[in-house]
Specification:
Order of helices and strands: HHHHHHHHHHHHHHHHHH
Structural class: mainly alpha
Number of domains: 2
Mean pLDDT: 81
Shape: elongated
Low-confidence stretches: 221-249, 373-379
Radius of gyration: 27 Å
Number of strands: 0
Distance between the termini: 43 Å
Strand content: under 5%
Helix content: 55-70%
Length: 379
């Protein structure tokens, strides 16, 4: 029953994604992946119920399919987090080499008669132990490899997110990392348990994909980073601060940048003045691109300035100002009628979790500890 339930859920997810409007590149990859899962689970269920023995030509069709799950997880990951498509026909064929190799190695089985195929299956692969050994080792090796590659891509993406967004609540892709870890666990389970146990875990895996993946937007969907352009500064502004020790570590990262030190100092001073006077950080969805446009600086150069001279990522830099603004507003008597949540939202925070995290990071205390129990709690 659990396998039929998982198959039904997978098919339902396939239909939902198929009829989804305004599908992006990642949606088409996810649609393909869910389709492969439906076919894989259907073939397994037919074999499990011995229905496949009535159609012996279907036996063996699923032999190379598991290798596709790791490939499609990786494709889905890079399409979700990268601004430009990375899936070309040449790269696709390269990633599918193990899949085709398993098909070629299975040709001796495919050439058997229907009765011979049924006998092999009923005897747990007798006569094809060599194929089972190669198949299992290939699945485990490439399964772990693609899961690891996906996790690496996700963590690289997080660093880019911190340098481009001031609100990252929906962009850290922790669920996708858990998905990659989950797939690795399935490969591990497959090495020690039979297919019934493995496909029981797959049902949970499908539910996880459906819950998190179906409404996931690409991380950089609304952001296009422009190439570096010369930074034009019309006035000389004295330097008011020096780089922190953490900022010095960023100098190697921008060693090839054409932005001069004096220009970077002017940009930083100008930026601090804009932050203090215009308070763009109160926009919860402020991005590096938007801030760069407002001061006529390329996003790449602005990121360099913030990283090297403040020693912070864009995300941390903006949230530091938000906490400062919150402390200022909360000190005013007329604002005591507001909750922490209300004031935090005015300062640009979109979630209680992020606010609490940065408040404690900057003050060393939670809001309740800092202000005392008589002050309104954050709703």
């Amino acid at each position: 029953m659990i396998y039929l339930f998982g198959l039904s859920v997978a098919f339902f997810l396939f239909v939902l994604i198929l009829i989804k409007k305004q599908k992006g590149r990642s949606d088409y990859v996810l649609l393909t992946w869910i389709g492969v899962i439906v076919v894989h689970m259907l073939l397994f269920y037919m074999q499990y119920r011995e229905v496949a023995y009535q159609y012996p030509h279907l036996l063996g069709v699923s032999l190379p399919i598991p290798i596709l799950h790791g490939v499609l997880l990786y494709f889905y990951t890079i399409e979700l987090i990268r601004k430009e498509s990375q899936i070309t026909p040449k790269k696709t064929l390269l990633h599918l080499v193990p899949f085709f190799v398993l098909i070629i190695l299975a040709i001796p089985f495919y050439q058997l008669s229907g009765d011979e195929k049924i006998e092999v299956y009923r005897q747990a692969g007798r006569g094809f132990e060599w194929y089972t050994a190669i198949q299992s080792s290939t699945f485990v090796f490439f399964g772990f490899a693609y899961s690891l590659a996906s996790i690496i891509e996700i963590r690289k993406c997080r660093r880019q997110v911190l340098d481009n967004f001031s609100n990252i609540d929906k962009k850290m892709l922790r669920w996708l990392e858990y998905l990659a870890i989950g797939l690795a666990i399935i490969w591990l389970v497959s090495a020690f348990f039979n297919d019934q146990v493995v496909f029981g875990v797959v049902v949970l895996f499908v539910l996880f994909i459906g819950f998190f993946g179906i409404n996931q937007y690409p991380v950089f969907y609304s952001v296009t980073l422009s190439e570096p352009t010369p930074t034009t500064i019309k006035s000389e502004i004295p330097v008011e601060s020096s780089p922190t020790e953490e900022a010095i570590d960023n100098t190697e990262k921008y060693s090839r940048s054409k932005l001069r030190d004096d220009e970077a100092s002017v940009v930083m001073t100008l930026l601090d003045k804009i932050m203090a006077n215009q308070k763009p950080f109160t926009n919860a969805d402020l991005t590096l691109n938007e801030l760069a446009t407002s001061i006529n600086v390329s996003p790449t150069h602005l990121s360099q300035v913030i990283n090297t001279l403040s020693g912070k990522t864009f995300y941390h830099y903006i949230n530091t100002y938000r906490i400062g603004e919150f402390l200022k507003l909360s000190s005013l008597p007329e604002n005591r009628k507001f909750t922490y949540q209300g004031l935090a939202q005015q300062c640009g925070f979109s979630s209680k979790t992020t606010f609490n995290k940065y408040f404690k990071l900057q003050t060393g205390k939670t809001p309740s500890e800092y202000f005392g129990v008589t002050v309104n709690e954050m709703a």
